[in-house]
Model the fold of this input.
Amino acid sequence: MTTRRSRWLASAAALVAMTAFATACGSDDSASGSDDEEITLRVNLFGKFGYADLYKQYEDENPNITIVETAEGDLGAYNTQLQQRIAAGTGAGDIVAIEEGQAVNFLQAADQFVNLQDHGANDLKDQFLPWKFEGATTADGSTTIGLGTDVGGMAMCYRRDLFEEAGLPTDREQVAALWPTWDDYIATGEKYKAAMGDESAFMDSSTNTYNSILMQNAEYTYFDRDDTLVIDSNPAVKDAWDTAVAISDDGLTAKLKAFSPEWNAGFKNGDFATIACPAWMTGYIKDQSGEENAGNWDITTVPGGSGNWGGSWLAVPTQSEHQEEAIELIKFLTSADGQLAAFEAEGNLPSNPTLYDDPALQGATNEYFSDAPVGQIFVEGAAALEPVYLGAQNQPVRDAVENALRSVENGQRSSEEAWDTAVSDAEKAAQS
Amino acid sequence: MTLRDRLARLDIAGAPYLFIAPFFILFGIFGLFPLGYTLWVSLHDWSLLAGDQGFVGLANYSELLGDDYFWNSLLNTFAIFLIATIPQILMALGLAQVLNTSLRAITFWRMGVVLPIVTSVAAVGIIFSMIFARDFGLANWLLSLVGVDPIAWNQERLPSWIAIATMVDWRWTGYNALILLAALQAVPKELYESARLDGAGAVRQWWSITIPMLRPTLVFVVTVATIGGIQLFTEPLLFNPGANAITGGELRQFQTSTMYLVEEAFTGQRFGYASTIAWALFIVIVLVSLINSVIVRRIRSVD
Amino acid sequence: MTIRPDAPPSDPAATSTGRLIPIPHDPELPTPVKRRRRSLRSASPMTYLVLTFVVLISAGPLYYMVVMASRPNSDITSVPPPLTPGGELGTNADRVLNSPDVAFVQALINSFLVSAVATITVVTLSSLAGFAFAKLRFKGRNIFLLAVIGTMMVPVQLALVPLYMLMGWLGLAGSLWSAVLPFLVTGFGVFFMRQYIVTAIPDELIEAARVDGASTLRIFWQVIFPALRPAAAVLGLLTFMERWNDFMWPYLTLSPENPTVQVALQRLSSGYYTDQALVMAGTLLGTIPLVLVFVVFGRQIVSGIMEGGVKA
Done:
């Protein structure tokens, strides 16, 4: 190619690209200003909320409204993005989902969200579990930034086939009877280990069990209600820690880090026989275990009987230009009918206690999990729940404790060393 | 003085500024503002979501000096940087020499070595964490052939550094080879010919012609590798997928400084402190680059 | 023997005024490329062996992407991992292309536009500035150059929040402009071009043109720019690849309805659960255009590098 021709070509190509680019950028449609103007509501979610049919219904009833949902796959990425958009004051949707672990963070920026108490949220209190409503309300009770969608009622998922191999009962009633308490659960684990040896571990990891125990029997965990760090003085934390350490010292775990590729592979390969599972994890287990394990998994009650892990709220950022319409829509989506529709679509457990007697919920079963009565099991796990207060710096402290626990599990640290590290990390995080 | 002379003089004086203006104007808008803003934030107790909690002067900086995790992250950053960069530059030089020969299917070979930069980061992360997996990874399988016990790559410090350095080198060696190759091509052939006539052998030619002629490009490659190496983020993050990836292992054994920065900003919500880490890193990079240039000058005076 | 590397012997042809208007090659004539090749050392079988090994390692992950994209998700987590492609590629690709959450075709177009615009501006503006830094004398040259290198030293992770706020104030958050504006020029590009020009362009070339009374801009456009082809080709390729694969910034700034490929891929997984096979199929689909760019322009880029130096 000659220099002259190539230069001419390059210029032409540049011109074409620039023109195309300018055209692509210039297609913004602006809203007109009439009374029943066409409005597009943008909904930012993560994962599966099961709202598709609800949107259709709402759009039919409100012809001037169009709903555009974006659902993010990766929760970590979703949280980072939402934080940046709230911090910058632009770019967030008209409605955003706030996940359990982030609620306290966003409550610190409550002024960035519409206070739903100014829009009749107080009249809706009985529509939600009390702790669910409080979870999105500031400490002084004056501001509520979100309405509850689902809760993550706890249960225990287990492998029938491996239990049979180890000579343990497989029927879910009988399995539940094996472990009324965590000590019984450990004792069952010992039996399992004696039968199976190195072939398969009793549970996936100590962190998963640790969190289940901690969230079960505490009013608060690392921070008390005045947001003072109490990691070293709160017996609930130390108890959960000691139990988790005992479990890993006994060699009952497969030492698999949650959400790592090895952990994912473990579901399919039978690396572990039990895992504490909230409602939303049933889909995860099914996807990772594959069709060849259909009927191998089952669900029963968790030791201690209840617990919560996960769940979300819907909020309206003040940066939204359609606040009124967005508030109406979240009321619709979080109503009893809305929550029931979401459960039927995706299995997300409602946070509305009036639904817990509903036959549609009570009678729900899960085919993949040997037709386990998931509705009944998870409702039981959620209804008995007491609220757990999580401090503003809960996330970094939780990360520090989980890291410390894993270092014990991997044999990198002694329990004492790891605990001291966790406490000093927590103190560091609490200072900020 | 004629108008033409005056225009010529104006051209000589003004053109350089005209030529560098686009860069500086664009950088001023999209680079300088974030920098200045970050500096401002670093002087405050600033929560990411709750915003400015008050001016604290240099308190963040003095805290950083006593922060073990920051020093730990710097140690990891430099260790990985050294383990990765030295072999990378040598391999790239060798590869550029190999590519600078008369080959059949020359396009194929030259494009082949740059393939890693086409491969998306997400795929690379998944694949390398599989290669270095403890129980079913390729790396441990190869080691078992020569009688080495399986290594828990992401639980031990040195193995994790080596594994991450491998990821970095896989991605960037071919890229640097291409840059060096372009420079090799620019060395006038007459130099080699006259050297041959003077009876210089291949090694002698390489030392006295190739390396000096490549020096500007080598300076460039080393500088870019340094700047990139100290800002290493994606590879160590992908190396340990799953919960708490940002802490770089249970004992923070491979958490780099930019990972620590992101952890403080988004997990700890400490935007002010994270800005302080950014500026501290900036200063570190400047210092290292100065040391680099001093070393390069020394090499020059040795010749 | 003394060789002063900083003063390469001048090319006698370059001092004639005829150089200002390059004479096009007749394609029928043997090109300089072929002449050049003969002056290179010929390759030994050992060379081919080394290169084969390098290319295999380079292509390994790409191959593995195909393996994962063509299997059901549960295969990927098998122990040991599968090493041969399965038969699910069509199914997985179909799920990507018809996924309601992902405007994949739109994303491809957007990615192409963003990458192409950034590549054009980076190469042009970097050549301009790099030339000034390498060959022109002006007050403050070293300070300005240091500033350019300094711009590369700022850790990018934290510029994200302020940069995003800036886009908000400009009213551009969510538009394609916001994805491309911060990358219209890079310190890396300027530095890269400067280092190349210092080595590759003899001063005599510029002086001869000056004597002929050419303006600086004309010298740049007619003498320098054609000689920069190898470097421009490399820089262009690198810029295009980097923009195409960039994730963090587009993810933060673009609205989900108007994504780039990498942002669209992020949406493929759903729930707390990542369907690796689906993501890999999407990644593969997003990589194919890059490989095409590679194949189409690869030949040109390589011949650009081959023609290196000033004897274009």
User: Anything to note?
Assistant: The CA atoms of residues 76 and 176 of chain B lie 23 Å apart. Residues 3-42 of chain B form one domain. Chain B touches chain C through 106 residues (CB under 8 Å). The radius of gyration of chain B is 24 Å.
